[in-house]
Amino acid sequence: MSKTRALQLGAAALATAGVLSACSSGTNAGSIPPPASATGTPASSSQGGGEAPSVPSPLPTAALLANPCNGGLSADQVYKLGLAATGTKRQDQTGATCTWRSDTYDANQVSITAVTPNKNGLSDVYATRGNDKYFEPTTVSGYPAVYAGILDRSGGDCSLWVGVTDQLAVNVQTQILDGPNKSNPCPVVERVATAMVQHLQGS
């Protein structure tokens, strides 16, 4: 196993410790609907060399890398997504991560990780797709992305990678243990990823 893939797997495993249910019951539930352009036509999965589609317009990432809790989502987005106001930041070999708990279901969390060891961004995820339980290219607000993870989604886990530059992919990971979204976690992680891209666009 390559060092790059090991770091990817580490990010997925660590993020699994936390996750969300923002679409469940509660006054804030589902307040940020994904825009019509959030999910586009799946990108080709037969591109040579493990290369992902290029990022059309690189997003500013300095704030995200410095503090993913503030740089990943705004305070208003955190509220509208139904998350607890304060996220927990950590820094390890996979990069900077922020994890938020659901404001409705304490067992549910969502994490945003800027996976800095992978220097080829989303292409590193494409190159190691053989290790994943699922691999589904998509787009998030016009940016190349892929649902890919080493854990099966039946347990409430969903992992979405978004290419914010050609050198940096951000992993948005959710694991829903309670509530109605446990059996269908990916729309939740897509909603969080869409909010993240919108936040970065406004940076």
UniProtKB/TrEMBL annotation:
Which PROSITE patterns does the entry link to?
PROKAR_LIPOPROTEIN
From what organism does this protein derive? Amycolatopsis pithecellobii
Which keywords describe this protein according to UniProt? Answer: Signal
Composition bias of kind Low complexity appears in 37-46
Q: Which residues form the signal peptide?
A: 1-22
Protein known as = DUF3558 domain-containing protein
Q: Where does the record place the region Disordered?
A: 25-59
Q: Which residues cross the membrane?
A: none
Superkingdom: Bacteria
